[in-house]
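Quick illustration, no need to memorize.
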Amino acid sequence: MLLRNASNGTVLATNVARATDAWSRGIGLLGHKSVAPAEGLWIDGCSAVHTVFMRATIDIFFLDKDQRVLKIASSVAPYRLAVTCRNAVSVVELGATGDTVRDVLVGDRLALE
């Protein structure tokens, strides 16, 4: 699916899966050797993630019930124990962009299409 910043129309990623059950939420992106900036995972029912056993650096977006960004954690390296956000109900993990800044700010609304 396509991930769009609904607040400004910018496409953030073109290959985003949705994790809705316990299995897909638990496995997440762990099996990926690398995660391109245009790919990622939208995790429902989630307010905290870890990167233990991951091999890729990721950008993380914590969303509220209206899919508005509450917190952004950029370039989270593998083997971080926990990254959390109070009041988040969904998390979007995307391959890290490194020095390139994504066109998304706290308060923007994200949408999967």
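The chain has a mean pLDDT of 91.
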